[in-house]
Every structure is written in C-alpha cells, then in structure tokens.
Write a structure and sequence with these properties.
Elements: E1 3-4, H1 7-14, E2 23-31, H2 42-51, E3 61-64, E4 74-77, H3 83-86, E5 87-91, H4 98-109, E6 120-126, E7 139-146, H5 152-162, H6 186-198, H7 200-222, E8 246-254, H8 255-262, H9 270-288, E9 298-304, E10 318-324, H10 332-353, H11 355-360, H12 367-380, E11 392-397, E12 405-406, E13 409-417, E14 426-433, E15 436-444, H13 451-477
Length: 478
C-alpha cells in the first residue's frame, strides 16, 4: 500500500550527510548451542528472513521522491527486491574478541545505506571466539535500518518479526506469493503534491489552535523546565563537527541490580539510574581530558508518543525532552536524586507543551524548504555553528524480558546503535532484555579516539553507584 512519509520521517533523510548516516538498529549476539544440532547455517537465517518479510512493511519498501521535491517522499514496494543484497555474511579476524567486534560494527555503521533500495541491511558476523563471557561458537547479527523508516518502538516490532519465543519455531504457514504494487505515475505524484500543498495553511492553523492552550498552561505556571541552548560553560568535545569515522562500545548491567539501586532514592526509576550512570561515565571521561564543563551536562531523551492505532505502521512518532544529568554532583546517590528531580521537571514541562504537538510542528514546513535548508546545513557543517540544546542523547528502548530465538539459537545480548551528528556526536542507546540492560554508545572517532577508556568510565560509574547503594542499605539495616 502506498504510504507517504511524515515530515518527521523525512527530516531524518534531509539531515543525513556523508558524515552522518541516519540509521539505527540492534546488534544481537546468539548462542548456537540451543539450536537443533547445535549449529545454524547462513542459509537457514536467510530462509527465516524470507519467510517473515511480510511481518513488517519496512523490509520490502523503498523511497520514491516526488518530482522537484514538491512534496514529502513515499514508500513504495521494491519490484526488484533482492534479499541477499540486504542480508550479508562476514567473519571477524582471529582472535575474534570484543574490541574487534566493536571495530567491525563501527565500520559497518559508518557507511550510509543505498537509497535506491529498501533502507536496511543485516550482517551475520561469525568468529566471536574470544569475546569475554560468551560460549564458543557464538555469532552476531548487526541490523541497520534508516531512522526515516523506524523509531525505537517500531524497531522493537521488527525484533519480534524475526525471532521466536522458543528454540523450536512454530510451523510456518505458507505465505501467498508476493506481488509488488506498481509505483504511482509522476502525474499522480504531482497531483497529490498540489492537493497537499493546498492543505498546508490549514495544518498551520491546526497546530496554532493546539499550541495556544499549551502555551497558556506554560504561562500559567506549569513550566518547570524548558529547552535552552548550551552555553560555553556546558559545551564539550561532543558538541562540534563530526567526521565520517565512528566508534562503538557497550556495557552490560543487571536489571535486578539497577532496580535495587533505584530503591535507594524515593521515586527514582530505572531510567533515572541509567542517566546517572551515563552522567558519571561522561564526567570521568571529561575529567581525564581536563575538559569537565563548569555546569551540568544535558541529555536529550526521545519520547514515544505513538498510540495503539499507529502500531505496525513504521516510521517515527517521537518527541524529545531534555534532562539535566547533574554531572556536577559527585556523590552517586545524591546525583541519582538530583537526576530524578530534573527528569520529573522535564516531563512536567513536556506535558504542559504537549509532546505530540512538538512533532506536529514539523508538518507545517513545506518540503522543498525543509529539503534545501537541512541538506545545505548537513553537508556544509553549518549545524555545528549553531548552539546545541544537549550534550548527548540517551534513548531507552524496553525490550522483552523473556529469551528470544532465531533458528533455535538463543539471543544472549542485545546492543543498540544510533546516529552521531554535528553538535551531538555522542549517542547512547539503552536496551533492556531478559534480565539485563545494555548501555551502548556511538561516537565520532575524532571526538572519542579511545572508546575502550570510555567504556571503562561507564563501568566504573556503575560500580561506584552499586557500591554506594549497598553501603546505604547496610546503614539502614544497622
């Protein structure tokens, strides 16, 4: 079915440059010992993808631009779809350790997707023979999907599409032969663009109508926290122009331990603990460089504003809030309390303005204006001349708390990936899965030439918080 991108979806296309690919997706690590015969062949994985292509519209559809870019692009089915172009097979060189896996992932993630094809790729990576904590024979799948096609919520739906809840997959029903729809003609696209542009003033009026009550609530005193631009005392090395090179890394936490930590601060959430860990890690890293900002770091936090009727449609239905990370508070539990307070205030402000309203504003910008403005800014590096609104992005995607399987192989770990952009070079995807939480990070290699050290900083920040929470528990018990 012909589907037009939203203005928010299209913005991820417009802001993409050769230095800033705009894809996201998980990297999953599998244990083959649970599979039938203890082995999974590449052709088995291909067969599973092929059998489940109809479970998500993302897999087979590609972009179709409107002539002269007079309107937002459309998703259309790829008449020449080639699964083996999208699912690829590689192996790590020996010894196949964690650092080599991170380097390989970073190289793959630094490459933009081919816009003439469906905007996703999957890499089956063998040779993980010396990754600490993994049994022998493990393999990984790195899934790259353009942000124009999915957000965190729809990414989770794609995870469901390719996995099972048992090592013995259910008997698949034979799918009907796939017949791609013919793409619309240029005249149809131009006629649709004409009608949509006629409606543009009405969209503006509707956004203003919704915005006035929200602004009145803010003026009435509901604003406790507002978006602001970072001053020089808050900017870091991550708020500049990114290169085309990337680094990737991640740490694993216990969900039970994180829950015990949050209990040490009344009202605190799992997300507050994660933000506090990232805050402490960034502080340690910048301290070592002699670059600790005078004021607290700020994070951008995406919010899922998708309702049930929009489930399974793909695309993006997200807004953004910013939260004070309180990196200026050294004590880990006091920092957690301060982060919780800042998060509550930020949510109050976002609710007052209306999270969905913030996404609707993008629909009022004519596509041709957006294309020209964003494209010039992205390619020229002009975005790095603007004052940023946050130092990093931390996005939390709740995952399944039960084991997942692919061709009988159990998923052991899931890590997230995301874009590094001008003025926001450090991105933290957080994913919970089956009793664990991973904090991943993607960054420009020029901004972070030592990702192993930053990974250690995150680990030390978490251990410090865990130790402090145990100490407080002993005091209460005494």
């Amino acid at each position: 079915m012909l589907q037009q991108l939203t203005a928010l979806d299209a913005s991820f296309l417009h802001t993409e440059s050769s230095r800033s690919p705009m894809h996201i997706g998980p990297m999953m690590i599998y244990d083959m010992s649970s599979a039938p015969g203890g082995f999974v062949r590449f052709k088995d994985i291909l067969r599973t993808f092929e059998a489940r292509l109809d479970r998500s519209p993302v897999f087979r559809r590609k972009l179709l631009d409107v002539p002269l870019e007079l309107d937002l692009p459309y998703w259309v089915e790829d008449e020449d779809f080639d699964l083996e172009f999208h699912v690829r097979h590689i192996a790590l060189p020996k010894p196949g350790d964690w650092r080599q896996l991170c380097i390989q992932a970073a190289r793959l993630l630094a490459r933009p997707l081919d816009r003439s094809r469906p905007l996703w790729e999957a890499y089956v990576i063998e040779g993980l023979d010396n990754v600490a904590g993994l049994p022998p024979g493990c393999f990984a799948i790195l899934l790259k999907i353009h942000h124009a096609a999915i957000d965190g919520a729809t990414g989770a739906e794609i995870m469901e599409a390719i996995h099972d809840l048992s090592p013995v997959p259910p008997v698949a029903e034979e799918a009907a032969p796939w017949q791609p729809e013919a793409p619309p003609s240029k005249s149809t696209l131009l006629w649709n663009a004409y009608r949509n542009n006629l409606k543009q003033p009405l969209r503006m009026v509707d956004v203003i109508r919704k915005g006035v009550p929200a602004w009145q609530r803010v003026r009435a005193g509901e604003r406790q926290h507002s978006f602001k631009r970072l001053g020089e005392r808050e900017r870091t090395r991550f708020n500049g122009t990114v290169s085309a090179a990337r680094v990737f890394g991640a740490v694993d936490l216990s969900l039970d331990e994180v829950k015990r930590i949050k209990q040490r601060v009344e009202g605190a959430t799992v997300n507050d603990v994660i933000l506090s860990v990232v805050s402490g890690g960034m502080r340690r890293y910048l301290d070592a460089k002699g670059e600790t900002p005078a004021k607290s770091l700020i994070t951008g936090a995406p919010i899922n504003v998708r309702d049930e009727s929009e489930r399974g449609t793909g695309g993006n239905v997200v807004s953004m809030m910013n939260i004070d990370m309180r990196s200026d508070v050294k004590d880990p539990l006091k920092r957690l309390a301060a982060v919780h307070k800042a998060a509550v205030e930020s949510k109050a402000y976002t609710n007052a303005v209306g999270a969905r309203l913030l996404t609707d504003v993008t629909s009022t910008i004519p596509n041709r204006v957006a294309v020209t403005g964003f494209r010039v800014a992205a390619e020229s590096g002009m975005m790095s001349l603007m004052k940023p609104t946050f130092n990093t992005v931390v996005t939390n995607v709740p995952g399944p708390q039960v084991p997942l399987y692919l061709n009988g192989a159990q998923v052991l770990r899931i890590y997230g990936t995301g874009p590094s952009m001008d003025n926001s070079g450090l991105f933290h995807p957080v994913i919970s899965y089956n009793g664990s939480i991973s904090i991943g990070f993607m960054c420009c290699r020029e901004m972070m030439p030592d990702p192993e050290f930053y990974q250690d900083c995150l680990t030390e920040s978490y251990q410090e918080m865990l130790k402090a929470s145990r100490g407080r528990a002993r005091k209460r018990a005494g």
